[in-house]
Design goal:
Layout lengths: L1 H4 L3 H9 L8 H9 L4 E4 L6 H11 L3 E5 L3 H13 L7 E4 L5 H12 L5 E4 L1 H4 L2 H7 L4 E6 L19 H8 L4 E5 L4 H10 L6 E4 L7 E7 L3 H10 L5 E5 L3 H13 L4 E4 L5 H12 L5 E4 L12 E6 L6 H8 L9 E7 L1 H11 L4 H19 L4 H8 L12 H4 L4 E3 L1 H13 L6 H9 L4 H5 L16 H13 L3 E3 L7 E3 L1 H8 L5 E3 L26 H18 L3 H4 L2 H10 L4 H4 L7 H22 L16 H12 L4 H7 L4 H13 L7 H7 L2 H14 L5 H8 L6 H16 L1
Parallel strand pairs: 1-6, 1-7, 2-4, 2-5, 3-4, 5-6, 8-13, 9-11, 9-12, 10-11, 12-13
Antiparallel strand pairs: 14-17, 15-16
Length: 731
């Protein structure tokens, strides 16, 4: 074994894989395996984990068994391994995708000693016939890939992974190498304990990826922000993660209608479509993949330039792994996540109904995510701390470093936190410590009678959020740590005890404030002005133009464009008929009938004033209500009574009239004479129609009621005739 361990590995590397040097810890890991020792490898995405077991499998006698969770990933790995060899039998996989004849071929190659690497799914490993087969062969070592799947604290827990060790004992012992790209100290401990390899040699590569930029943005009009970002970075590859399949489909469609080459990817799609979409992304036929976490494992695209999270993920491990797919070639990698606390509440709701232990773990992991998001500490430093690595100084490549928040002197607060943790014998979590300091009478505080402690309420001039920020920054400073066996219990480290003896200045950054809700529903194309102020001068010019056109066409000004539409034009500055259709209350009909003169005036104004147009605000949306509008228009074409249409869709009559007004105002012509003749006598119809043609200047409903007389006409009657009037004269 020693002769094998001492061999010239560079020659083997060059001969079989074509490389002339190892990356990072690769050589140390390989030598450890060759010497027959158990090995734990923590190597972030892109670090070259596969080579750590591929090379020793070639050198050692027998077959290496690689336990891997994903069938697609196995196929890629086997293909890669075969490309280095003249014999396809050098690598095989054994999983549920194989037919009987293929399984027999695999077993023959293994028995004949051709196969150096055999990939097995954990489910296949448990089958009696496979156990019996593996007992007959010489196994060089076992490699457990994606080993974080063992731990319930990992981001991809798989119960079948916890059965790996008993099965290995049944098949026959051999050295084990466990590999993962993301594991906190807690998860690492779980993996080693479960695989009975607590004495393994541990090789950790740094989690620091200096080329990645991290930023959290408030979830305000996130879709608009995403479109703006992609359009200002044309041709760059990106992945956008969403939590739900529905949101993946919606967002991919919205990007598409805004001229962005994008495709969806999630587990609910059939395998062929998923594979096709993935290939189109890899082959650069599309720039953007919108995906759930189902996408990414084993995706080795080196030039992904940005990874966005439309929704905050359930854990920091998941988040780190997903962001790690950016900039794997060492080039630019932007990691931008959108956050509203509502997302966290949504995730908490998903946990209801799960076993209590699972809920507890889920809540702890969510708490870590919230802490990361809301903190104003250097983001890579926070992430590295979470994974048990210490980073000195700041990265100067994240939103918090480039736009630092106000700091305050935290010396006394840190001392208070450390004293309180010691006072409760280091047996409680951060939220409990924060409750003691703020004087919050939670159930746990009452049960443990911690309201009788001298520190109870000692920090009540601050809120719980403040104390959580202090605790978080004491953890980063290594004054505190979280216990591994009982995860989350705060312990005072030697460094913290030393600080208590001799406290010095300790500056703490204020946390971020993020909205409770996201207001993505307020898309401009849904009729919102986006909160921006209209250009008053342009607004008046457009009103004058409307007056002029109304005289030419002999219709009241409001028939052409209503005031909210003119205001929106004075915010958006549309200069083409396409852009004009994104203005609230303007559809294709209105744009083609009246738009030409308006966009010419706006273009002239923009050129003269040298205005930079906020084109990022013009977002075409896949309007969810479009199905309802189509149903209403089709029902009117079939001359269905409006009351029946409203009943069929569960609408009040006023809501149906709102929908009809939106349809007519955007330029679609409808004919409701059949219904009007049934519910309003002809004379009344004529009187209301004449009022809007001859007297009304604004089309206001209130003014019409006043002028026509509320005793004589109902609001509903006036609205119905106004619809006929606008449809006939305006459209």
């Amino acid at each position: 074994m020693n002769a094998v361990a001492d061999m010239d590995l560079i020659s083997v590397l060059r001969k079989h894989f074509g490389f002339t040097s190892f990356k990072g810890n690769q050589e140390l890991v390989i030598r450890n395996i060759l010497s027959g020792r158990d090995t734990f490898v923590l190597m972030p995405t892109g670090g070259g984990k596969s080579l750590c077991y591929q090379l020793p499998s070639i050198v050692l006698e027998g077959t290496a068994i690689v336990i891997s969770p994903l069938i697609a990933l196995m196929k890629n790995q086997v293909d890669a391994m075969r490309s280095f060899s003249e014999d396809d039998g050098v690598a095989h996989y054994l999983n549920s995708s194989l037919v009987k004849s293929q399984v027999n071929q695999v077993k023959t190659d293994v028995i004949d000693g051709k196969t150096k690497l055999l990939y097995v799914a954990p489910e296949s490993l448990t089958k009696e016939e496979n156990i019996a087969f593996l007992q007959q062969i010489k196994i060089s070592f076992y490699a457990v890939d994606e080993a974080h799947c063992i731990s319930e604290w990992g981001h991809d827990f798989r119960p079948e992974y916890r059965r790996i060790r008993p099965i290995i004992n049944e098949i026959g012992k051999a050295p084990i190498i466990a590999l993962t790209a993301t594991a906190t100290p807690k998860v690492q401990h779980d993996i080693q304990k479960n695989l009975e390899m607590l004495d393994a040699n541990v090789f950790k590569s740094s989690f620091r990826r200096e080329n990645l930029y991290y930023e959290i943005r408030p979830k305000k009009n996130a879709v608009k922000e995403i479109i703006k970002y992609i359009k200002s970075n044309p041709g760059k590859s990106g992945i956008i993660y969403c939590l739900s399949r529905k949101k993946v489909e919606e967002l991919a469609e919205t990007l598409k209608v805004n001229g962005i080459k994008s495709l969806p990817y999630h587990a609910g799609m059939d395998a062929t479509t998923r594979a096709t979409n993935q290939d189109k992304f890899l082959m650069e036929e599309v720039d953007i993949i919108v995906a759930t976490i189902a996408f990414g494992m084993g995706i080795d695209k080196p030039d992904v330039r940005f990874v966005m999270h439309y929704d905050i993920p359930k854990s920091l491990e998941g988040y780190y792994q997903e962001t790690g797919r950016a900039g794997r070639d060492g080039g630019e990698g932007k990691c931008i996540a959108f956050y509203a606390y509502k997302d966290i509440q949504k995730l908490e709701k998903f946990m209801q109904g799960k076993p209590v232990a699972e809920q507890e773990i889920g809540k702890q992991l969510l708490l870590e995510t919230v802490s990361y998001v809301e903190s104003s500490v250097c983001r890579p430093r926070l992430l590295l701390n979470y994974f048990g690595e210490e980073m000195k100084g700041r990265c100067n490549n994240c939103d918090n470093c480039l736009n630092p928040k106000k700091q305050f002197e935290g010396k006394n607060d840190v001392v208070l936190v450390l004293q309180t943790v010691l006072e409760v014998k280091e047996k409680f979590k951060a939220d409990h410590i924060a409750n003691i300091l703020t004087g919050t009478l939670s159930q746990a505080i009452k049960s443990y009678r911690h309201d009788e402690l001298e520190f109870f309420g000692a920090g009540n001039e601050h809120d719980i959020k403040h104390w959580n920020a202090v605790i978080r920054q004491a953890l980063i400073a290594r004054f505190l740590s979280k216990e591994i066996e009982n995860y989350g219990l705060l312990k005072v480290e030697a460094k913290g005890k030393k600080y208590l003896e001799q406290p010095v200045s300790f500056m703490i950054s204020e946390d971020h404030e993020y909205p409770d809700t996201d207001d993505d529903d307020l898309l401009i194309s849904e009729g919102q002005g986006g909160g921006a102020a209209a250009d008053e001068e342009l607004f008046m010019i457009l009103k004058d133009l409307r007056r002029k056109v109304s005289k030419q066409k002999k219709v009241p000004p409001f028939v052409i464009f209503q005031d909210p539409s003119l205001e929106d034009m004075a915010i958006q500055y549309p200069t083409t008929l396409d852009e004009l259709q994104n203005i609230s209350g303007v559809g294709a009909g209105k744009a083609s009938r009246y738009g030409k003169e308006f966009i010419e005036v706006i273009k002239r104004y923009v050129d003269e004033k040298e205005i930079e147009r906020p084109q990022d605000m013009v977002v075409k949306s896949v309007v969810n209500k479009s199905g309802l509008k189509v149903y209403i228009i089709q029902s009117i074409d079939r001359k269905l009574p409006l009351t029946d249409i409203a009943d069929a869709k569960g609408l009040e009559m006023t809501q149906l009239l709102d929908e009809l007004e939106a349809v007519v105002n955007s330029g679609t012509r409808i004919n409701i004479d059949y219904y009007l003749d049934d519910v309003i006598d002809e004379e009344h119809q004529e009187e209301i129609f004449e009022y809007f043609r001859e007297e009304s200047e604004s089309g206001s409903l209130d003014e019409a009621l006043k002028e026509l007389g509320e005793d004589e006409y109902s609001e509903e009657e006036i609205r119905l005739v106004r619809l006929k009037f606008l449809s006939e004269l305006g459209n």
